[in-house]
Amino acid sequence: MPDDLQDEQVDGLDPDGLERRLEKLVKINSVLMDRVERSMDQQGNAFSLFQTAIGLDAKVRSRTEELTAVLRRLECSNEALVEAKEEAERANLSKTRFLAAASHDLLQPLNAARLSISVLSDMQESDDARRLAGRVDQSLQTIEDLIKTLLDISKLDAGVVTPDYQSFPLDQVLSGLEASFAPLAGAKQLKLEVRRSGLLVNSDPLLLQRVLQNLVSNAVRYTAQGGVVVGARQRGTDCLIDVVDTGCGISESERETMFEEFYRGTAAAKSDHAGLGLGLSIVQRTVQALGHGLEVTSTPGKGSTFRLIVACDGAAPLVAPAQTKAHADLDITHGAAVVVIENDRQVLEATVRLLDNWSCRTLAATRLEDLEPALAAFGRPPDIALVDYNLDEGRTGVDMVRALRERFGPELPAIVVTGDRSHAVAADVTAAQCELLCKPTRPAELRALMTHLLRAASAPAS
């Protein structure tokens, strides 16, 4: 509206109309001011929210970067741990291979020494000389046990022991235990009773035998009087194998630590025949590898019972016992013709002296080819073969046994002697239907095994 017209309209209003007009303008102005203030507040809040969002975004970005850095460091640490673990496993396997090779080299001269000491002891006339020879033999036995035990522990720790489960008669293992430990128990005037079970068990026969050998060895070692009983019975689907002794016992406080390496109980440490404290450690590791159960009950001063829990496959087929000749000599090794093949000349000479001392007729050489003239001149088949497993030119004792059996018949009894305690060697010997004897050879164990095989070979077929 033009200013002159507004002025005329204003001039034409009465005072009341002018006052109303002013009030209306004041209201309009108030409304406009309120809208402006609200608009400014909204703009201020939006700006504040915008600033807050920017701040949160910066914090989230910072925390994300920190978390990413931590995850990267953790990933690097995990990679380092995996690499360290693989390196440790490679070192462990390398150690196992080294111990296996070193043990064979160490056991060869040790085997010759033990055989020679046995011959030397038999040649002595005075009690003092025999006692001295016995002490030397005991020291050699300690060295042998240590080497074998270190190798066993190394294999178990490296995880290279893979059980070969099969169903087999438990009495096969029990018979071997009786033949091995009867001379040792007799020397201490202890009664060793091995009760046949007539049961089939599902386990690795070689590893199970090793467990029982350690348990029986401990029982005989730490029993001064009384005896040791080995027996088994079926309970449901399990076979319970008990090794019971009347020895020094194990206190309650020592139950948790008795399976540790080099641990010997208080009572056992006082024994004159205390071991190295490694037998039970091997037992526990082997039982865990087999997945069997092991329970121990013991009373100090009265004895202990070690119970092995193995899966049972029922009763073994009945086999008629072999009938031995009524006129069989008490010492069947006397005059027996023994083929000996051993590539270590010291061991060969010591073995020949030992067999000659038992009045055997020995045909010995480092190679089978070198025995051909002696075998041809002998005029009859040998009674038994005693061969080393690791021979020259990559050949094995099992190869020699096969060659001898092709010539003299499949019934020729054979013992394969080796310092290699691996499962593969044991399986090869077992598959060839030979008996396995680990070096260093114990003369009493060798003679007992030879007697058993010669008697079985001379028994009439059923």
From TrEMBL:
<dbReference type="GO" id="GO:0000155">
    <property type="term" value="F:phosphorelay sensor kinase activity"/>
</dbReference>
<dbReference type="Pfam" id="PF02518">
    <property type="entry name" value="HATPase_c"/>
</dbReference>
<feature type="coiled-coil region">
    <location>
        <begin position="67"/>
        <end position="94"/>
    </location>
</feature>
<dbReference type="InterPro" id="IPR004358">
    <property type="entry name" value="Sig_transdc_His_kin-like_C"/>
</dbReference>
<dbReference type="InterPro" id="IPR036097">
    <property type="entry name" value="HisK_dim/P_sf"/>
</dbReference>
<dbReference type="InterPro" id="IPR001789">
    <property type="entry name" value="Sig_transdc_resp-reg_receiver"/>
</dbReference>
<keyword id="KW-0597">Phosphoprotein</keyword>
<dbReference type="Pfam" id="PF00072">
    <property type="entry name" value="Response_reg"/>
</dbReference>
<keyword id="KW-0418">Kinase</keyword>
<feature type="modified residue" description="4-aspartylphosphate">
    <location>
        <position position="388"/>
    </location>
</feature>
<dbReference type="Pfam" id="PF00512">
    <property type="entry name" value="HisKA"/>
</dbReference>
<keyword id="KW-0175">Coiled coil</keyword>
<dbReference type="InterPro" id="IPR050736">
    <property type="entry name" value="Sensor_HK_Regulatory"/>
</dbReference>
<dbReference type="InterPro" id="IPR011006">
    <property type="entry name" value="CheY-like_superfamily"/>
</dbReference>
<dbReference type="InterPro" id="IPR003661">
    <property type="entry name" value="HisK_dim/P_dom"/>
</dbReference>
<keyword id="KW-0808">Transferase</keyword>
<keyword id="KW-0902">Two-component regulatory system</keyword>
<dbReference type="InterPro" id="IPR005467">
    <property type="entry name" value="His_kinase_dom"/>
</dbReference>
<protein>
    <recommendedName>
        <fullName>histidine kinase</fullName>
        <ecNumber>2.7.13.3</ecNumber>
    </recommendedName>
</protein>
<dbReference type="InterPro" id="IPR003594">
    <property type="entry name" value="HATPase_dom"/>
</dbReference>
<feature type="domain" description="Response regulatory">
    <location>
        <begin position="337"/>
        <end position="454"/>
    </location>
</feature>
<feature type="domain" description="Histidine kinase">
    <location>
        <begin position="101"/>
        <end position="314"/>
    </location>
</feature>
<dbReference type="InterPro" id="IPR036890">
    <property type="entry name" value="HATPase_C_sf"/>
</dbReference>
